[in-house]
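Researcher: Sequence recovery benchmark, item below. Answer with residues only.
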């Protein structure tokens, strides 16, 4: 009898930003199971249900494991050579006849967790000369990046809360007990938040919903999309009562008087109707925040997706500056990548903002990408630069951008549409080709995008724990093959690097590690290299705390001071309240995080969908009674842009006037059966892709605070 070969291999999760350690049990070359890594120095034996359920995705019989070519209304398997030859031939023709700008690429959220995928995609766009990159960032975080650009002169300098040392954490529009932290990498974040309270500190959560985090700590209910007014009122009180840290402001910032004048127009008594927060509560919170021995103000998705996302993120950091809590222990601090990525991005022009403008709407690029909400119009609007070919990797934009119906119709008009993915999903079902990608367990990796966001400086390299199943290939290999079939070479992206071909990913990674701020300089000092990381499979803690006192090296403005008076922000603040409320839509729609969902891509896991999970709209009982909606019964939600139907779930966890609906449901993909059976509705059908409805400074989709009405569904 043959003995089964069993091996355990350390790796880490690449679903969300804590990047928790995992141990994979591999039997005869196939993944048998995943468990938390007890030897991981940060997650220490913790992993959330999604990380463990990645075994379902890895072994899913619905996975695409061979290249698929459209055949009528269905797909047929073909060889890699057949697929790549045809894609390359068609792409060459499009480039010859219409030029590089006629080709677009949409890059989904999971791609940001692969160091090689993102780099080769940029190399592809450089090689063909196309500016038309679209990413999930315009439905997620780009307003945070633009706020950093205005404050510090660099999009990639995002401060993180110093959780281990703070005495007061103000959380705005984030639910870290479910998200496990976003734009911050903090494994076991629940423990870190509880530790703040145990040492006598406070965690205050500003949210229209009494989220899981708000229930565990102090909840301050706010009206949807009221964050800008609340933050301005907090600043108003601090300035009015002389509670600002004048010495720190003088040394760190300029433009204080303009910020003071902007806040002066928003006393809490005047903003109470906008925020729903009593003026006395605002004044008390402002005083407590200013008086804390150390404090950090942190916001995430909820603070990014309203009508004024860039302004809100700017004001979050302005509060940190004004209270003297920027770049100090226990405050908002700046991590740094051991690869020196922030410095490289600035030096080589990769962290761009407004270097180009979109053809439709004239929006500035953010980190080289345009608003994904514009993709349908970029395909259908005639003229030079109209998109005729589209590539989508690790994404499902039909489910994630506003008005997915418009995008569905537009994608059918392309001359070439190629998807690189694990599944035939709601978007890729429309493609000419679906090319099978590896899971993160089938590739080597370093968490490049998160290295500067760890609250405890850390780095980990992982080998692939299993060989690719079937004929799956890594995304960088697929992209490299496509661009070469089109007669081009993938180049290192950047304005100052000329036409330097990309070397192999691992070679490039080793160079970046060894030449980085913690590198071994090829043996000249003790430091990091790829070889050194391979010897430490559970990862390496680089320091006990994030270094402080670094602001002058972080800020890219010439005078090395934080700018509190950018004209873009002053103009945005002047526009507050310009849009009149429509009484036909008296309620406001918000999203919410679910512990067992990750956007739209994990609803095919049987483990995560156990227990009869359903997609519901959370409605306050008083709102339900007023509008005739019953618990558990279908309700119709209507916005100025569309309508959906799904069961109502009556709960006092949402404030009056608020309806909360998770995104990522309502699947109609061609290949994932469990996800399709789950039902639900695509909540983004209630939102608009009209350029006039996008946030001005970052092109963000308006996904939070959408005006709606509710009523019982017909029948």
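Model:
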């Amino acid at each position: 009898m043959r003995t089964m070969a069993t091996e355990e291999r350390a790796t880490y999760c690449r679903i969300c930003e804590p990047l928790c350690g995992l141990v994979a049990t591999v039997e005869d070359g196939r993944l048998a199971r995943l468990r938390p890594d007890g030897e991981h120095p940060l997650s220490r034996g913790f992993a959330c249900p999604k990380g463990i359920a990645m075994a379902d995705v890895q072994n899913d019989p619905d996975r695409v494991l061979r290249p698929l070519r459209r055949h009528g209304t269905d797909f047929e398997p073909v060889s890699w050579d057949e697929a790549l030859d045809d894609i390359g031939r068609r792409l060459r023709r499009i480039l010859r006849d219409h030029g590089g700008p006629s080709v677009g690429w949409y890059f989904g959220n999971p791609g940001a967790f692969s160091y090689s995928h993102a780099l080769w995609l940029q190399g592809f766009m450089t090689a063909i000369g196309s500016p038309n990159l679209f990413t999930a960032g315009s439905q997620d975080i780009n307003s945070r990046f633009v706020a950093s650009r205005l404050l510090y002169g660099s999009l990639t300098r995002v401060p993180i809360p110093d959780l281990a040392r703070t005495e007061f954490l103000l959380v705005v529009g984030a639910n870290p007990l479910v998200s496990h932290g976003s734009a911050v990498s903090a494994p076991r974040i629940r423990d870190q938040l509880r530790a703040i309270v145990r040492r006598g500190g406070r965690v205050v959560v500003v949210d229209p919903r009494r989220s899981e985090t708000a229930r565990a700590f102090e909840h301050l209910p706010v009206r949807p999309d009221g964050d800008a007014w609340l933050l301005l009122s907090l600043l108003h009180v601090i300035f009015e009562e002389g509670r600002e840290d004048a010495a720190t402001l003088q040394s760190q910032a300029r433009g204080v008087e303009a910020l003071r004048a902007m806040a002066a127009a928003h006393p809490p008594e005047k903003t109470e109707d906008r925020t729903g927060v009593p003026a006395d509560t605002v004044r008390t919170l402002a005083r407590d925040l200013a008086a804390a021995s150390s404090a950090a103000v942190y916001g995430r998705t909820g603070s990014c997706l309203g009508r004024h996302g860039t302004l809100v993120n700017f004001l979050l950091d302005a509060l940190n500056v004004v209270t003297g809590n920027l770049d100090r222990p226990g405050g908002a601090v700046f991590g740094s990548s051991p690869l020196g990525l922030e410095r490289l991005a600035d030096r080589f022009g990769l962290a761009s903002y407004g270097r180009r403008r979109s053809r439709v709407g004239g929006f500035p690029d953010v980190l080289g990408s345009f608003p994904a909400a514009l993709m349908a119009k970029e395909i259908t609007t005639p003229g030079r630069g109209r998109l005729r070919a589209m590539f989508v990797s690790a994404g499902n934009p039909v489910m994630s951008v506003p008005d997915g119906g418009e995008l569905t119709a537009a994608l059918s008009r392309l001359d070439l549409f190629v998807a690189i993915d694990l599944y035939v999903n709601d978007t890729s079902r429309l493609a000419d080709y679906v090319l099978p990608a590896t899971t993160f367990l089938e590739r080597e990796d370093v968490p490049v995008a998160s290295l500067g966001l760890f609250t405890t400086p850390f780095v980990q390299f992982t080998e692939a724990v299993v060989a690719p199943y079937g004929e799956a290939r890594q995304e960088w290999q697929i992209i490299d093959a496509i661009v070469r079939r089109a007669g081009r070479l993938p180049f290192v992206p950047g304005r100052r690097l000329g036409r330097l071909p990309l070397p192999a990913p691992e070679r490039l990674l080793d160079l970046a590690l060894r030449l980085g701020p913690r590198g071994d300089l090829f043996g000249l000092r003790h430091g990091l290299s790829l070889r050194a990381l391979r010897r430490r499979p559970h990862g390496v803690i680089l320091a006990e705390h994030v270094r402080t006192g670094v602001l002058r090296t972080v800020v890219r403005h010439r005078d090395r001071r934080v700018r509190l008076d950018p004209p873009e922000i002053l103009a945005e603040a002047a526009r507050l309240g310009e849009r009149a409320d429509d009484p036909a839509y008296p309620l406001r729609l918000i999203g919410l995080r679910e512990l067992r969902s990750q956007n739209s891509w994990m609803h095919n896991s049987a483990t995560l969908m156990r227990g009869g999970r359903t997609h519901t709209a959370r409605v306050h009982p008083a709102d339900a009674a007023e509008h005739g909606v019953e618990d558990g019964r279908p309700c119709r939600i209507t916005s100025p842009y569309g309508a959906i139907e799904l069961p109502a779930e009556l709960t006092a966890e949402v404030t009056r006037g608020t309806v909360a609906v998770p995104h990522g449901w309502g699947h109609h993909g061609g290949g994932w059966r469990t996800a399709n059976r789950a039902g639900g509705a695509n909540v983004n059908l209630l939102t608009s892709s009209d350029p006039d409805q996008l946030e001005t400074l970052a092109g963000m989709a308006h996904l939070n605070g959408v005006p709606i009405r509710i009523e019982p569904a017909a029948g």
